[in-house]
Amino acid sequence: MRHLYxxxxxxxxxxxxxxxxxxxxxxxxxxxxLNSPSVKTDGSVQSRHxxxxxxxxxxxxxxxxxxxxxxxYHFSDIIVNNNSFLRCGMIGLIAAAxxxxxxxxxxxxxxxxxxxxxxxxxxxxxxxxxxxxxMGNTNGVVLGWPVGVGVQLRHVVLRxxxxxxxxxVYNSTAxxxxxxxxxxFTIGYRxxxx
Length: 194
What we know:
This protein is mostly beta strands. It has one helix at 2-17; strands at residues 24-35, 38-39, 45-46, 48-61, 65-80, 84-101, 104-121, 132-133, 142-153, 156-165, 178-179, 182-189, 191-192.
């Protein structure tokens, strides 16, 4: 275990010692995670998986601060009452501020998601042989509060974060009115543009 700590410290030191005079950077990323919805209606809800991918453009303000904007797509699903499945894919716009200290960074901001597809499935109902369109019960805009911590090793960016749902994904006529709380681990590669 001591060797693992030594290797980690050496990697962080190497990343921190790199001369970075970047003013503008572009970071594509890919991530996996869990959706842990909070529910305001009756019924049980279980966490399910999340897949997200996107790109972020950052303007570097000196050594410690960055302001960024990004575009991402994320797919999430949940199980309702042990037998129904709700799936939703969203395109999101992100505005964020990042504080960096050497190779470690913290970020937060605001995320605006627009659902592009939403469907529902209950395998116990014979009338539903597949997934049924659920866009009519899905809110047109969903707000979230992303917070993350990560490390940049040379150009590779590793981030663990949570996006806390500020508004409900599904409206009151849906099976459940849930706010998505999404936990993700992403890996990206930061390209220096200027």
